[in-house]
Amino acid sequence: MRPHAGAAVSRRRFLSLSAGGAVAGAAALSGCAMRVSSAVGGSGETVTVMAKADDISPELIKQAQKDIGVKINTVLYSPSKLIAMMTNGNPPDLVRGVGAVDAPYYAARGVMEDLDPYFAKSSVLRPADLDPVNDLWRYDGRTQGKGPRYGMAKDFSQDSMFWYNTALFDQADVDYPPELDPVTYEEWLDKAKRLTRRRNGQTTVFGGSYNGVLTPNLLASLTVAAGGNLFTDGYSRVDFTTPEARKALGWYIDYCRTKVGPSIIQPDPNTWDGPTFQANRLAMSNSGYWLGGLINADKKLAPLSRLAPAPYFEGGRRVSPCQAGTGFWIPSKSHHKDAAWRVFEWFFGEAPAKARASGGWGIPTLKSLRPLMPAQEDYQKRVLTVQEAELKHYSVIAFTPYATADSLLALFNQIAPAAMNGAISVDTLAGRLNSAMNDQLKRGKEQV
Amino acid sequence: MTVDHIPSVADRRGSAPAPGPVTSRPHTSIATRRHRAFYMFASPWIIGFALLTIAPMAYALWLSFTTFDGISPRWHYVGFGNYRELFSDSQTWKSLGRTGLFAITSVPLSIIAGLGLAVLVNRPLKARGLFRTLLYLPAVVPPVGAGIAFKQLFDQNSGAANGVLNVFGIDALGWLADPYARYVLIMTVLWTAGNIMIISLAGLQDIPRELLEAARIDGASAWRSFRSITVPLLSPVLLFQTVTGVIASVQTIMPLLLAPDPTPAGITALPQSNYLYMMHVFAEYFAFGRYGYASALLWVLFVLILVATGLIFKATSGVVFYNVDPEAKK
């Protein structure tokens, strides 16, 4: 399970990024070839950044002052604090966000700054160099993926891809998934069942984890993979009763019901897959390339771990979306937009971006930084081969602007356990989800 | 103020002020100046109370009549719409019912546990101070730490609780799911009974020893002394613990720390039995972004707490024994 907004920061990730920041600083000081923007200033100003602790380390903050002369104040990321600051007319200058779900919501409410004029002038962040994943941060007033850019992703993963532990496959005598060809979702679940080990009512090895970044987002992706679309009527409604959405929902409920992996009815106390995978207690984890940052740092685990393409539904579409695209945006009421943009450029295109690219925690969002992805070891080369082939199947799966992903997730969490425990059918669940989520979307649409 | 105008001891006791020469402020009475001084010294608290309590409450009351969601530009006034919706929201009633049940169960249990511990450590034991410290220790553990510890301890697959059951050949239980989750929650409350123990201990030590000795000489058993002397004399303390316990239990946020995913959206995945009223409020505020509706929920809770407190005072007025007659203090 990937940690999302509000989830605990992994110590390893924090240390990794802190170290990355320090390395990046050293590289910058030694004068590595780096483009520096000349279009926008901001030197000498102070920029308030609302981020999580592992987004911008103290070392990176010092580095910003040295590199671009901008002082950074950080405010710990919190949606409620963001609302309070915006209501007071004193918003942060840069805000962390999950592009896949936050961009349409905030852009539709007019609180994000259109960054196209800045991109047009930048010599660091050139639109031609932007990976298509950054389209998650575009919104044209109707559909995500088109129109002005409101933010940018700091790195990304194709989150439906999964890692697997070959040692656990060997122990259970289960065939490895093919290297470049995807398995079907049904095959994935079958393998997960065969890989699961239980003793005295306790699960000692989870066969597989498949929770995506946020469940509504995952269900939207699964529905597209099944050949349909979860959102209807201009993204103002959901429909879980279409054959495709019903197939996607049914598969996910089956996954939860069989308890082959963590879910809300069988939570992992670690709250995300990393520690469980590292402890050889999880055979498959749908965490995308991103988890490689953790895996590469574990010399025992890395040679045992392999990345596999996103599964597909028989008769559906082969899609491999990014369900997060976490990055930053500038509030339209920011008092230091130029300085914020300078930090933005530096963070996404200069030393910190290079450090992140070589750390393995996600794919760089500038195409020019791809050669920095770790590829020294054989297992890293193998992962890169799979990842590069998978990029061909990337597509933006648009999310509704009328509700936060958190609100839809909260409704799902309230309603779905009954189906996961077998108390109601998937069809009943689909009806209840339609009713509750469409009420929430209706309220949201009235306010846009 | 000149030396002449410093109130005498007699003044402070409420006697009529002695007439004296008024030099600096002939038109200001001593009473007025005393009132001024009172308000001047109390003003930091009064300002704080106004800005940090009254103003937010008033703001929340205003929000409760709107559809404000924090971000959207087109929120509007809906009058009593949120309050009307509240009465038809099944989650509100269910969570309120669970909260009532939780209060009825956890408050008496924690008071009994705290009193039992207090009686225990009030006895002349060896290393009594050590016992008192150890029993109080859980109360000073930060709730977040305690929540994480309980979650790890009762995890179905890797928790120590099921490890112990397995030793005895019993299959693992899903402690953090229904129907067991409510018991784990009550355990978290009882775990901090040291708090109540300390207050009860202070009450016990205030009971005149000669009363207990007289009862013993008269042949009363320990239980009879406890029932007829200790409990009545402790009744104001028990009333205090009941009132504060009920208020704390209806505002409890502890289930959040036991949630599978302790985020605004994650807490709606709590087992039904632990989805209490404050969880519902929290979810409406931070997961659904319904600041107006959640504010209405909070105002209703505020009124319910006032009513519950009044009822407790009314119901106990005949059984609470005050050492000092409260009427005499008026």
UniProtKB/TrEMBL annotation, chain A:
Sorted UniProt keywords: Sugar transport, Transport
Entry-linked InterPro entries: Bact_solute-bd_prot1, SBP, TAT_signal
Highest taxon of source: Bacteria
SUPFAM superfamilies: Periplasmic binding protein-like II (SSF53850)
Protein name: Multiple sugar transport system substrate-binding protein
